[in-house]
Every structure is written in structure tokens, then in C-alpha cells.
Amino acid sequence: MTFGSLRSSKLTAIAAVGAAVALGILGQYRLVESRDLSSGLIVWAVAVTVFLVGFWQARSIEAQVPVSMAHGLDRGTDSSIPLRTEALLFVAILAIGIFFRLYKIDTIPPGLNSDAAWNGLHAIRITNGLEYAPYIAEAWGRETMFHYLIAGFQLLLGPTQLAIQLAAVAVGTATLAAFYFLVRRLINTRMALIAMLLLSASGWHLTFSRVGWRAILVPLFIALVFFFLTKALEERRMRDFVIAGVALGLSLDTYDGARMLPFAAGALILYEIVKQPSFIKTHFTHLLAFGGAFVASFAPLGWYAFNNWYDFTFRGRTLWIGSQIEEAGSLEPLFINLKNALLMYNFRANGRDFFLDQPLLDTPVSVFFTLGLVIALLGFRQRGYFALLAVMGFSLVVGIASEPNGNRAIGTLLPVTAFAAIFLFESWRWLTRVYPRHQFLFSAALVAVLLFVTYSTYDSYLGPDRRTQDGFFPNTSVVGRYMHGLAGENTIYVAAGNWPRDTLSYFSYQGEGDPFSLEYEYTTEYDQLLQFQPGSSEGTVFIVQSEPKAGTEALDTLQERFPAAELEQIRRPADDRLIANVLLVPPGGGVGADFTAYAEPGASERDLARRGDLLSIAAALAEFERLTGRFPSTGGVIVVGCASGTIGELCQFQDELGLGTLADVRGRPFRWGYWYQSDGATFTLYAAFELPILQEESCRTQEPILIAEPHVFCIHG
Do 81 and 185 sit in the same domain of this protein? Predict the structure, then answer.
């Protein structure tokens, strides 16, 4: 190849890759800003095609250019960076990550997520002396490792929101360091520094590092498992095999998203065996130690799962895609999940709390990720790329098998970030090889890109004009803090549309007793406030959401009924927006002369009515079975009527019966609350009674939504 043709080929490769990046940015604009999926995917298809042309051209040129600097893609170190410089850069990037996770943590996020509040409530139980358990059946089933970490911070700071957040911040910060050492081991130092900075400035990881979900543990354990496993496979030391096995066993006590991690680890070991068939013979003892360490560290959780298999698998069975496929009678739900999983990084993340309509990755990182993934797929035979692809592939299975979003697929966070770093690093590496005299210029350009990404994340997630993220319930958090000063000495009644009870309970907890025992009564029916009676020895507090007209009317009636009561307002500190009106009724009530007391039925009358309702429902179910030959099936799972949202036939049956939704989404009965379970051939109806009853053995259950109810009555049919 002549000098002129070589120069032309270089420029062609640069132009092709540059055009691919520009087209990728355009594709992201069509996907994210215009919400035009079809045209966005077409632009992206062109971008990837152009990139492949440029990539192959670049590789062809590289093969003809003398190597001017050391580079080993499958090597754990890079001697071209002095250790002191590496350490300084590591500390600087770690400081950036810590800043991003602690900056304005008292106001960002603006409130406490309900799942994070539940984790905090269970952590209070732990600080109160709850016996150790690696898993709990409540709240659809949860691993407890993160709860114990929260409990540690609660011992230092008390049951505060900050205690929950700092537990997440600590894990997120540790993940930055672990991720650096993982990428350094898999690829090299420069790549590790780039990847660490991208993770430090990742909006996805930043959000999860502040919210207080146990899912934040998954990336940390992925980094630990694969760092020590890769180190073990390279250096063949028994100690590393044991540590890797321990980390892998403990990873299963983090979050559902880690349950595919053993398969990813197994894939890497299989890769090593295929690459070196004698490995299994020469290192059989090491592999045995790895497996033994895994079993030993998994033993507490494994023992629980063995003895409580139904509880341990309840969440997974409830979300299992197979049930949706069976109900639909086709594979369409699987294809939908597969499509959503592939699009959640660049188009829509399908979150229920965060990243609802936004992608998990922001531009331009989403562009770098896609092009870096192409590079990794083409080079999958290299151990570093193979390990990252294995983690991503198996972690995606968790989301595809249930409902893909940013938390269920959080195991893909590290490989996704690494792929973005791969594109940036490989682009820089190629340019500095073919144009060695301009290495400083290309390095400055790389730093500029990384600084732009960092600033963009700050502006989008922490700056004055940051994006609004749902799922933190700022109004509920303000009300909960207000309630804390009144609970214990007053009877509190709360009426609102959608204030998560766990968030209210965490903030209003008084420091003694079971934190899940409510310090208040909650209703979504505003006219129910008129049925509550003020106490004679303590004050009564009515907290009414300000927006609905029904709430305003109920508050007006209460003011007429209690003329001596004081009216206060709860406003959001950030913008002084009115959240709720509060009526403070003194002991005795100050009841007006024209007030006629409401005679609420006693517990025995209410239980009798519940028993009668169950008998009526059972009779209707029998008639349904007579006409159809079967009962509405839930697949053997206990559901809360239509609140499950999955048993359409049962919902229709309820509507015909005039029952409506039988209980709220947490399974807590109000006015009436029934649970239903059927395999199509038989059924069981459950109801929570207020007074002790003679309970049949068949009604005793460890079902998560019933375990908190002391008196359960059931009818079989």
C-alpha cells in the first residue's frame, strides 16, 4: 500500500466512524426526543453498517502500521502508565463519584421511595433484635443483606432517610473501585480509568446509589466475583478461587437480578476449559474449592430456600413470563419482553419508579455503548470481552423472563458501561497508533468527551434544571415528617389518593415497637373521615390531601363538626406548594351541639359480615363452576382480587358479582379484604378477621400477603 493510499484509507476509516457516531446521535434524537421508534431504528441500522465499514478498514490499516506503544487487550496491566499517575487518577475519579452520590443528598432525591422505606422499616426490626434470616417472605419476598447494611447506618444515625441513602451510597462507591479493578484485570489500565469515570457519571448508577434499593448490591458483587474469578483463572491461586466462590454464594443474597450470576461465572470457567482442555485436570482441586466456597457461603440462604421453597420463589413465579404466555396462548409476551429489553438502554426503560419513559443511558453514552457492543461481539473470543458479554447476556435473562427494566436488569450495568468505554478506548488507541505524533491531541479530545459526559450527567440529575424523576414521593415524605411530631400523643387519620404507607410509616415511627404497626389510620375514601371519632384523653389529627374536591368537602364538614379544632397546612419546602390540610382536634373533640355521633359496627359485627361475604362469594364461584366447568384460575397463586392485574377472568367475575377491587395493592384489607387462590379445579377464599377465631390447619399459611394477619378465616371449594 502506497503512502497516498494509506493516508486515504486512514481518512476513510475516520470519516466512517465519525459518521457512525453522528448517525447514532441522530438516531438517539429520533428515539428519545421525537419518540419515533421506526425512523430511529432505521438511522441506527445505517449507523452500525457505516461503523462496521470503518471498523474493518481501521483494522486493515492497523495491521500495516508498526506498533508504537504497548497494548495487550487480554492483559491485566498496562506499564505505560506510571503507578503513581494511575493512583492519582483513580483517587480523582473516585472523588468525582463520591461527589455525585453525596451532593445535595438532603434534597436530591426529594423524598423517600416506598420500597426503600420498607427496607428501612425491616432494618429497624433488625436493630430491635430481630433474629437473623437471609430472606423474608413479606413484601413479595426479599433478600436481607442490604437491610443489615441499613441497620448499621441506623445504629449510627437513627431511623432516618439519610441512613437508608448512605447504605446505598456506600455500596455504589465501593462498586466504582471494584469495577475499576475488574476492567483493569480484564483489559487494561486506561480502559479501567475510562470505564470508572463513565460509571461515576452514570445517571442510572447515580440514581440507584441514592434511592435505597437492595438492587444496588448486584453490580458490586458482579465486579467482585469476576475480578477474583478472572484473577484465579490467570494466576491459578487457591486463595482467589475460594474468594470468588464466597463472593458468588453471597451474591445470591442481594437481589433477584443476581440469580443468573452463577451461570455467567460457569460460562467463563467453561470458556477457560475450551481454551485449555487440560485446565479441568490440572486445577480440579481449585475448582472443587471454588464450588465448596460457593456452597458454604450460599448455605444459609439455600437452607431457607429448601425449607420455604414456595416463599422463596413467590416473586419469581408471580412475574414469570411463562404465566403470561400461557394466558395469551402465544409467545407474544416473550417477544414483547425481548424487544423491551433490547430497547431499554436507548429508547425506553419501562421502569415503574424511575426511568419510566426515558432510556437507561443518556446521549452520547448510549451511542458509545452501542458501537462498543459491536466491537465486543466481533472480538468475543478474547477473555475480557467474553466475560462482559456473558454477564450482560445472563443478566438480561432476568428481565426478559419477568419484566425488563433498570432494576431487574441492573446486572447489565457494568458490562454496558464497559462497552461504552471500549468504544472510546479503542478509538483513542487506534488514532494514537496510526498518528503517534498527535497522541497528546487525541488524549485531550478523549478527556474533553469524558468531561462533557460528566457535566451532562451533573446538569441532568443534580443541576438546577435537573430532570424530574418519579418514584420518590416528595409530598408523602413531607407529610410523614410532619406526622412524626404528632404520632404517639395523638390519634392520626390520613385521607389521600396515593401516599405510600411504608413511606409514611418510616417517617412517623416513634422509636419503639414494631415499625410496621401503623401510627395512624389511612383511607382513600374521604367520606370515611366522618366516621372516625375523637378520643377523650388524646388529641385527634385529620390530615387531608389538598387536591381532590371530595377531600375539601370532608374537611369542611369536619370543621363544622369540631369548631374548636385548629386548621394547619402542610406545604412542600421546595416550592411552598400546598400538600395537605390538617385539622387538629383537642382531647374531647370540641364537638358542636348539632353533632350526632356515628355508631360504627363493632369488630364482631364486622367479622360476621366478612364471613357472610365469603359464603356469598363461594356460592357465586360454585355457580361459575357449574356453568363453565372450572373456577377462575390463578395458577395456584394467592392474589388480591383484581389488584393482581393478571387474572382478567377473575376481575370480570368480581365485576359481575359487584365486588370491585377486593383489597389494595399491598394486600391490606380495608372495609372488606379478601384473597383468592385457585388451580381451576379447587379454590380457597381468605379473609382477615379482627377477633381470634378457631383456625383450620389448612388456613395456616406463610403466604407473604397473609403472614402479617393474625386471624385468617378461609373457605375451600
Answer: yes
**C-beta neighbour count of 352 within 10 angstroms:** 13
DSSP 32: I
Q: Each residue of 363-380: pLDDT tens digit?
A: 999 999 999 999 999 999
pLDDT digits (tens, 9 = 90+) for 392-413: 999 999 999 998 999 999 999 9
Pick from 551, 585, 619: which residue ends a domain? 585
* CB hemisphere CA count around 674 (13 angstroms): 27
Per-residue cell: 443: 488524549
**Cβ contacts of residue 76 below 8 Å, gap of 6+?**
184, 185, 186, 188, 230, 231, 234
SS3 (DSSP) at 325 = helix
In the three-class reduction of DSSP (H, G, I as helix; E, B as strand; rest coil), residue 277 is classed as: coil
CA distance 538 to 616: 40
Q: Are 399 and 522 in a shared domain?
A: no
| 166 and 297, same domain (yes or no) | yes
Question: Under a CB-based contact definition with an 8 Å cutoff, are residues 522 and 479 in contact?
Answer: no
Rounded to 5 degrees, what angle do the CA atoms 157, 158, 159 make? 125
DSSP code for 467: P
- pTM to 2 decimals? 0.84
- pLDDT of residue 103 exceeding 50: yes
- What is residue 31's DSSP assignment? I
Q: Indicate whether 519 and 650 sit together in one domain.
A: no
10 within domain boundaries:
no
**Mean pLDDT within 566-594:** 85
Helices (H), 308-438: 309-312, 314-319, 321-328, 332-343, 365-378, 383-400, 413-434
257 located within any domain: yes
Question: Which of the 8 DSSP states describes residue 473?
Answer: -
Catalogue the E-assigned strands of 86-166. 135-136, 142-143
Q: Which residues in 617-709 belong to E strands, given as ranges? A: 674-678, 683-688
Across all residues in the chain, what is the average pLDDT? 87
Same domain, 416 and 281: yes
The residue with cell 453490580 is 219
Domain membership of residue 15 (yes or no) is no
> For 203-248, what is each residue's pLDDT tens digit?
999 999 999 999 999 999 999 999 999 999 999 999 999 999 999 9
User: Is residue 106 very low, low, confident or very high in pLDDT (cuts 50, 70, 90)?
Assistant: very high
At residue 513, φ and ψ (nearest 5 deg) are 80, -175
Is 518 exposed, middle or buried, given 0-12, 13-18 or 19+ CB atoms closer than 10 A?
middle
Cell digits for 94?
473516585
Q: Are 280 and 183 contained in the same domain? A: yes
Q: Is residue 14 part of a domain?
A: no
Instruction: Give pLDDT, residue 622.
Output: 79
Statement to judge: residues 577 and 432 lie in one domain: no
Amino acid found at 284: F
Contact assessment for residue 592 and residue 543, using Cβ atoms and an 8 Å cutoff: no
Same-domain pairing of 216 and 239 = yes
Task: Give the domain range for residue 334.
Answer: 66-99+110-461
Please give the Cα distance from 582 to 492 (Å, whole number).
10
DSSP bridge partners of 535: none
Identify the residue with better confidence: 198 or 626.
198
d(CA 714, CA 688): 9
- Give the count of domains, the chain: 3
Among residues 436, 461, 486, which one ends one of the domains? 461
